[in-house]
Amino acid sequence: MKTYKLTAYEKSGKLITAESFTAATDDEAKEKGNAMLEEKNLLEQTHRLASPAGKLLLFHS
After folding, report:
1. What is the pTM of this model?
2. Do residues 25 and 44 lie in contact, with contact meaning Cβ atoms separated by under 8 Å?
3. How do the domains of the chain map onto residue ranges?
4. Which H or E run includes 20?
5. Cα 61 from Cα 47, distance rounded (Å)
6. pLDDT in tens, 11-34
């Protein structure tokens, strides 16, 4: 399992959430990250999901 980092920000740049979670694959991490954003109603906020290698899997500005 790999550890992924999900962050979301307000338009002002203030950090809303920063969470880490584990997933077996990048695709599984994308699904989990999207579900977490949807659950917290943050899909329209600036957000990013980064893999342990630094690859951006989800990004919205």
Report:
1. 0.91
2. no
3. 2-60
4. strand 15-23
5. 7
6. 999 999 999 999 999 999 999 999
